Amino acid sequence: MYLITMLGNLLIILAVTSDPHLYTPMYFFLSILSLTDIGFTSTTVPKMLVNIQTHSRAISYVGCLTQMSAFLIFGCMEDMLLTVMAYDRFVAICYPLLYRVIMNPHRCVGFATLSCLVSIFDSLLHNLIALRCTFVENMMISNFFCDPSQVLNLTCSHTLMYNVIMYIIVVIFGFLPISGILFSYYKIVSSILKLPSPGGKYKAFSTCGSHLTIVCLFYGTGFGVYLSTAVSHSPRYGAVASVMYTVVTPMLNPFIYSLRNRDIKNSLRKLHGRIL
User: pTM (2 decimals)?
Assistant: First the structure.
């Protein structure tokens, strides 16, 4: 699964960068999303594979904080990119004549840079909280990686200050992006329903289908992790949900975009022809 994830996302990046016809904002963000998926999976799976081979689940204090930081950066980056991609679809459908003006290259690079900076800031906030907590020797986490929520719950005292800070972080980096995606799709659906021809409606919906599928998959599995942890105290259920979130979703993303996107398939055929 890890090799498929790496190969699939690398093919998406290679297809986008090698075909000038794909030098558009949507595919620019898609290539960054594929790069983010590679980093997101690489923070957890290689260590898990080492643990399986060595029959040891131990990780150092520095290693745990490093893994947690990288996991938060790439996870938040994917969250922000999905929001930016929803905005891109909103502009393309609701303001098609102004699309190239609004989504110009400088603004696209600005969105990507802002997403990266926000992700780093989110990781730094969690690290500052973790560094003020007390780590116990031989502490056990019921997961295959240093899940930030479990690490902070096991090491930090449940004080009011930490709870308030965590709720603020969740609202800023979780609720606001989801609200942006929902608002974008509300405006998109409203605009599509006003189109007179069924063919126009289908074409408009098809441009959003892949992105909407990935959004549902990412947030659905993400919420599943925390709901399974809250409802069931079984470590097995939490681990299975985490595998879906951190391994299965990044693996499926390139397939969703390549199978539903004619431009990506044509670019991959051209790339295959050049190699042969």
Answer: 0.86
